[in-house]
Amino acid sequence: MEKNDSLFIYPGSTIYVAGHTGMVGSAISRRLRQGGNNNLLLRSHAELDLLDQGAVQHFFQQQQVDCVVLAAAMVGGILANSSYPADFIYQNLMIQNNVIHGAWQSGVKNLVFLGSSCIYPRLAPQPMKEEYLLSGPLEPTNEPYAVAKIAGIKMCEAYNRQYGTKYLAVMPTNLYGPGDHYDLHDSHVLPALIRKMTEAKERGEDNVVVWGTGTPRREFLHCDDLADAVVFLLSSETGRVFSTFEHNGVPLINIGCGKDISIRELAELVKNIVGFSGTIEWDQNKPDGTPRKLLDISRLEKLGWKPKVSLQQGVQATCALYKSDQRL
């Protein structure tokens, strides 16, 4: 089949998935293969250091890439963001600068950049529309990471304006699933809860301590649903996708499930699924982060996509996977 320039990808496209070993990149790679896209370019960190501009430029010069999915990033929860703010802003800026510019230099017209819902103001109206970008102060606990991701969005917008590329930024909500990190120093809230509850049950402990008050509300999306949404967009006509934000020119689409839950409710859900019979204690001396983060997903819904994995189903599967992985 001949290449169709109105699509992000077509049968036979060569797709470079940056960050394919992480939770997001691996999920997108799986979903692309399930859809019959087998021409995937995958490079581990040992094979290609995305912080090295020369190495990235050489990679693109040596390959014939039709589309880039930029899922590589330094990620982590509140503790990691608070501990390594310089690393979070430097590494994420360097990765996206090198990949986006390298892709453009080699003539890649289509690219999808993955960001995070933390790009929106701390006290943004809920649910958060794409238009709320840069409309207020950010959450201090992850501001360096958010600033880097905002720069990536603006970089996509700038290259589209100046060079006529079709670089799209998608902002996922909180993600979980296969390939997640369970290190209590670096992990996000859901994997941290799964590990704490599971270990407390196995050790016969009476209580689990959780950061904050439990009142903040968060939205959670299984990484396989995110991957499905990304491939849905990649398989769509670029004109139809880009027409959804013609009014402000920012090539940005939220990806979520449209429902949120309090951290307290989430902790109880994990507790019940794991079967931990003790109590949950809340360390209110620790930060809560943003009070609420619920994405407005109407832009994506109008294009025809909806999530498939419920939170109950997803957490059950993730708890089972974590427990089985711990036995290996």
Draw up the topology in text.
Blueprint: E1 15-18, H1 23-34, E2 40-41, H2 53-62, E3 67-70, H3 78-83, H4 85-105, E4 110-114, H5 143-163, E5 166-172, E6 174-176, H6 189-203, E7 207-211, E8 217-218, E9 220-222, H7 223-234, H8 238-242, E10 252-255, E11 261-262, H9 263-274, E12 279-283, E13 292-293, H10 298-303, H11 311-327
Key descriptive features of the protein:
328 residues; six-stranded parallel sheet; 13 strands; 11 helices; alpha/beta
Describe this structure in words.
There is one protein chain. The radius of gyration is 20 Å and the shape is globular. With 328 residues, it is of the alpha/beta class. The chain has a 6-stranded parallel beta sheet with strand order 2-1-3-4-5-10, sandwiched between helices. It is built from 11 helices and 13 strands. The N and C termini lie far apart (44 Å). It has helices at residues 23-34, 53-62, 78-83, 85-105, 143-163, 189-203, 223-234, 238-242, 263-274, 298-303, 311-327; strands spanning 15-18, 40-41, 67-70, 110-114, 166-172, 174-176, 207-211, 217-218, 220-222, 252-255, 261-262, 279-283, 292-293.
Would you kindly provide a brief summary of this structure?
The protein is 42% helix and 15% strand. It contains eleven helices and 13 strands.
Task: Label the structural class.
Answer: alpha/beta
Largest sheet: 6 strands, parallel
Per DSSP E runs of 2 or more residues, the count of β-strands stands at: 13
How would you describe the shape? globular
Helix content: 40-55%
- Enumerate how many helices there are, as a single number: 11
In the sheet with the most strands, the strands line up as 2-1-3-4-5-10
Radius of gyration: 20 Å
- pLDDT averaged over residues: 94
β-strand amount: 5-15%
Question: What gap, in angstroms, lies between the N and C termini?
Answer: 44 Å
How would you spell out the order of helices and strands?
EHEHEHHEHEEHEEEHHEEHEEHH
Query: Which residues sit in consecutive blocks of at least 5 with pLDDT less than 50?
Result: none
